[in-house]
Amino acid sequence: MRPMAIRPECYPCLERLIGIAVELATPDPEVRRQALKSAVRLLDREFTPDAIPAAIANRLLAVIHHFSENHDPFAARKAAATALAARMHQRLAPAYGDDLESLLRLAAVGNALDFFRGEAATAREMLARVEFGINEVPDFRRELAGPPGLILYLADNAGEQFFDRPLVSSLRRRGWRVLYVVKAGPIQNDLTLEDLEASGLLDALEPVVDTGARTVGLELHQASPGFQEFYAAARLIVAKGMGHFETMSHQSDPRLWFLLQAKCVPVAQALGVDLNAFAFGRAPVISLDPRDETG
To answer: Second label for 56, Cα 20 to 30 Å away, from 11, 99, 144, 208?
Structure first.
């Protein structure tokens, strides 16, 4: 596993995000034209060798929100994904055990949700058996065997909460204090407190906190002071999804564990797994020694 690096193929992916977000945000042709033009101009400016794709996405979505005055263009897609996730969880959960690795694999199934995929393709991915291309469950189990403390569980897409709940409950039964973390407001198809409440799982996942920011992944400098205090105090951090991997894999933080499906080639390359493989592992250690040729 290596930190995420931007690749040329990230550009058309971000272009596609712009197109989808603009189309969902407004039916007005003139507003669409203005938002599209401004977002593409921003993409050209921000797409540099040291950029983080998810961070660029945050800037692009802010521009589209500004022009359209629609701050939750993915609302309908989130509702549809949540309904699909509820059905798929009911169907799939009995096939998984209640041991730690099984619960991590079940949680990983939820990360197959993706607004770039159609419902049929998503369902096919969720039905496939999860085998981790990176499997550091034994190391995580050893961490959990130590004195309990605070775990931050960084949620990803709306709908994944159905697959997260069994793992979160299991970690709490082990004596750990687990805060389930959502976004402070709508951003792409990420889970918010409002989405969680609408799904009927808010009480089951409490205590729930938000980051204080509306960002794909986590840009910690944008998070609220209260969340930053939780982050500093956490003994372990479980971060779900590619957005968190993209924005956090550069931190070299031994508390940080990534749980995701590699749904694009650049993320798969950074993880060192096949495309669409699942991974659970500790954040990469980043050497400051220029002689270290790990890349």
So the answer is: 208
Do residues 24 and 160 both lie within one domain?
no
Q: Are β-strands 278-282 and 256-261 bridged in parallel, bridged antiparallel, or unpaired?
A: antiparallel
Q: Return mean pLDDT, the chain.
A: 94
Question: Minimal CA–CA distance to 257: which of 102, 134, 166?
Answer: 134
Residues 6 or more apart in contact with residue 291 via CB below 8 angstroms: none
Separation between Cα atoms, residue 251 and residue 217, nearest integer Å: 13
Which of the four pLDDT bands, split at 50, 70 and 90, describes residue 286? low
- 257 with 204, same domain: the answer is yes
156-168 residue pLDDT tens: 999 999 999 999 9
Segment 91-104, tens digit of pLDDT = 999 999 999 999 99
Do both 262 and 165 map to the same domain?
yes
Q: How far apart are the first and last CA of the chain?
A: 10
The answer to whether the CB of 186 falls within 8 A of the CB of 160 is no
Identify the CA nearest to 155 among candidates 80, 245, 241.
241
Distance (Å, whole) CA 117 – CA 147: 41
Is the separation of the CB atoms in 124 and 257 below 8 Å? Answer: no
14-65 residue pLDDT tens: 999 999 999 999 999 999 999 999 999 999 999 999 999 999 999 999 999 9
Closest CA to 172 of 137, 135, 206, 210: 206
For the full predicted model, state whether its pTM sits above 0.85: yes
Which residues constitute the domain of residue 55? 10-68
Cα–Cα distances in angstroms (integers) from residue 115 to residues 19, 87, 163, in the given order: 13, 17, 17
- The CATH number for 83's domain is 3.40.50.10880
Q: Is the dihedral of CA 122, 123, 128, 132 positive or negative?
A: positive
Position 148, amino acid: P
